Amino acid sequence: MTRRQLIRHAGWFGGAVVLTVAGGEVFSHIAGSRGSSAEAATGTGGALRFVQVSDSHIGFHGPANMDVVGSFTEAIDQVNTLGFRPDFVMHSGDLTHLSTTDQFDQVRQMMTGLRTDRVFTVPGEHDSIGDAGRAYRQVFGEGTLGDGWYSFDTHGVHFIALVNTLRLEKLGHLGTEQIDFVRKDLAGLSSDTPIVVFSHIPLFAMYPRWGWSTDDALKVIALLRRFSSVTCLNGHVHQLFTKTDGNITFHSATTTAYPLPKPGRAPAPTPQVVPARQLKAALGIRTVGYRQGDRELAIKDERLA
Questions:
Q1: Rounded distance, CA 162 to CA 203, Å?
Q2: Is 11's pLDDT higher than 60?
Q3: Of 4, 3, 55, 54, whose CA–CA distance to 209 is shortest?
Q4: pLDDT tens, 127-163?
Q5: Which of 207, 225, 271, 296 could be disulfide-bonded to 263 (CB atoms 3.0-4.6 Å)?
Q6: CA 146 to chain centre
Q7: 8 A C-beta contact, residue 52 and residue 87
Q8: What angle in degrees, to the nearest 10, is found between the helix axes of 217-224 and 176-187?
Q9: Residue 35 to residues 12, 29, 83, 232, 263: CA-CA distances in angstroms?
Q10: Model confidence, pTM
Q11: Among 277, 302, 274, which Cα is nearest to 288's?
């Protein structure tokens, strides 16, 4: 991807990104009147509505955000005042900054305050520092397979939660065992089943120079090609970004902790210090709605209130 293409795909901040599935293809666009309609559609009975939060980095202490506990608390409050009760909340990794027992306990306690029926997680690389994710799985790994991956179904949508942060060289990595799990998991599904995939590191090549990609993701993407609607949601990059590749749309989420630079605009992806009054504009949550039967998925990214 060229730098110009990268810039064109980025910059959805503050607006709703609507995914419409028709004729086996996924179309994304900034929400205008169609976006409003799609969002409104999720407010009807029987709709699936869930929230993605990401990269809370509980335990981080630095000038980029001196109070990550406070900003994650604000994110939780924002989820709880959306005006509807999400069917579930997904935290897409880097729950903690240094994988300590105290940090895992703290973030787990904080997420018990979410007004939702279920909370799911996938680990980030910060959740597996020094122990290959063992401490993470002790707290969040119940009912998962292998190194913590799993799948589930609700409202006619099939969800897959992947782990691509445990065997890092430079890029994310899934591994043979996990890819085989995906192959078997998808085998019995009809090709018109909507698929949503969660991971921490992007499955697409967002910016490999900074490790913002997964080296063996193409093997999973090949398995997803036969489905008419596939949406991949990730964290890790601390900024909104979207890309559509055939039947698959990738969406990177923002963070509740601190911003990272745009790809290539800094020597390294290190925490960025912004004026205090601008910090909340770089943080936020994501809501996703889907109404069974319409094959329409709506994504809305909101700044931290």
A1: 10
A2: no
A3: 3
A4: 999 899 999 999 999 999 999 999 999 999 999 999 9
A5: 207
A6: 20
A7: no
A8: 10
A9: 13, 8, 18, 19, 28
A10: 0.86
A11: 302
